[in-house]
Amino acid sequence: MELNGGCLCGRIRFNVTSEPRVHYCHCDMCRRATGSAFAVLAWVPSPDLTWIDATPAYRRSSPIAQRGFCPACGSPLSLAYDVSPGEIALHVGTFDDPARLEPRYNYGSGQRLGWVCCGVDLPHRETEERW
């Protein structure tokens, strides 16, 4: 499998060579970082991700994680937890063909907004972090 994607302005492109593990994330941190009701994240082993032409800028989004973004257009691109350096999440909306990446579970379900109804039939996993 090979998947490609990039930021809104096209400055940063990426290539992924493995099947991502995709989920909805309802945690406070993802909501604030994306400016949306939830994030849809595609997790891949770090060695299976190649940044093309340019690499993201990074900022610490919490005491446990950092996020990558395009410094030119501001597109959020990635999430990486300090305790899991071998994997990285990419925002599904940044893939060229996001329709191929269907979420399989929910994360942070206890923080789901009451009016969010997508994925309610999928398995749920909790988080203890709140930001």
TrEMBL record:
InterPro entries: CENP-V/GFA, Mss4-like_sf. Signal peptide: none annotated. Keywords: Lyase, Metal-binding, Zinc. GO terms for molecular function: carbon-sulfur lyase activity; metal ion binding. The keyword Zinc applies. Residues 3-106 form the CENP-V/GFA domain. It comes from the Bacteria. Belongs to the Gfa family. This is CENP-V/GFA domain-containing protein.
